[in-house]
Design brief:
- With 242 residues, this protein is of the alpha+beta class.
- Among the domains are: 6-80, Orthogonal Bundle (Arc Repressor Mutant, subunit A); 99-181, ADP-ribosylation fold, CATH 3.20.170.30.
- The protein contains 8 helices and 11 strands.
- It has helices at 6-20, 38-46, 56-65, 109-115, 131-138, 152-157, 209-212, 227-240; strands spanning 35-37, 71-74, 77-80, 99-104, 117-118, 125-128, 146-151, 163-165, 169-172, 174-175, 180-181.
- β2 (71-74) and β3 form a beta hairpin.
- α1 (6-20) packs across α3.
- The longest helix is centred in the N-terminal third of the chain and has 15 residues, at 6-20.
């Protein structure tokens, strides 16, 4: 490996370990071709103690300067290059642990409570073996995630496909609601009540102030009058003048 700044030397070793050996330790799942998005890779590394400084440009520098390079970059994705991407998917059908965990953003609480867990298109649910790992992964999306417990053996017996990935993670496309444990969603905030008008008591009549003090009728606006009336009025006024 070519001589790099000390910080990048450590990053090169970390990238080789994560991409070529144990992506599951930082909550990453590689695609079938062994690649992962640069965005997910930076987010995963930055969430690990001591690696909060990592940005996209650091990955580009390591790929360009290190020899041999621990990763290759293809557009917006990266793949382990030396000795090659990790292959951690375990054979389907292995019995899962008693509980698996997933931390969700609170905004999804109502939906998961009603419909269960379902991965977005072309993605998988990444379930953790421990609640600590699940919460660590959940904080990448929301600072206060909600922990969901999955009754994994019961789900597997019901036909839910669960596949182990490395030592820390399990993968699924959907988990029905009946196999989830989570607190009920908080009630929706109540709308402010409108101020009720006082109801008249039996035997009373409602009185309006305008009924007690009638308003004077507005003076009728004068309309135009014939010119001869105007002239006669002016003549009378002139005679009265001294």
């Amino acid at each position: 490996m070519a001589r790099l700044p000390r910080q990048l030397e450590g990053l090169a070793r970390m990238l080789a370990y994560v991409l070529c050996h144990r992506p599951d330790e930082v909550g990453l799942v590689l695609a079938e071709d062994g690649s992962v998005s640069l965005k997910d890779l930076v987010r995963a590394l930055a969430g690990e103690p001591g690696w909060g400084f990592v940005r996209h440009r650091h990955l580009l520098e390591v790929a360009a300067l290190a020899a041999p390079a621990p990763l290759e970059i293809m557009g917006d994705r990266a793949r382990g290059a030396n000795p090659g991407p990790a292959q951690l998917r375990r054979p389907p059908g292995e019995p899962p642990p008693a509980l698996l965990y997933l931390a969700i953003p609170p905004r999804l609480h109502d939906k998961v409570w009603a419909d269960g867990l379902k991965a977005p298109a072309d993605r998988e649910l990444v379930l953790a073996r421990t609640p600590e790992t699940a919460l660590k992964l959940g904080r990448r999306r929301d600072p206060k995630p909600l922990l969901v417990k999955i009754q994994a053996p019961a789900a597997a017996r019901a036909g839910v496909a669960l596949q182990g990935y490395g030592e820390e993670l399990w993968l699924a496309t959907a988990i029905p609601r009946e196999f989830l444990e989570l607190p009920p969603p908080p009630p929706a905030p109540a709308k402010p009540a409108k101020e009720a008008r006082p109801q008249p008591q039996p035997g009373t009549l409602p009185v309006r102030l305008q009924d007690l003090f009638p308003q004077p009728r507005p003076a009728r606006r004068k309309t135009g009058e014939p010119s001869w009336k105007t002239g006669a009025r002016a003549a009378r006024r002139k005679k009265r003048e001294p």
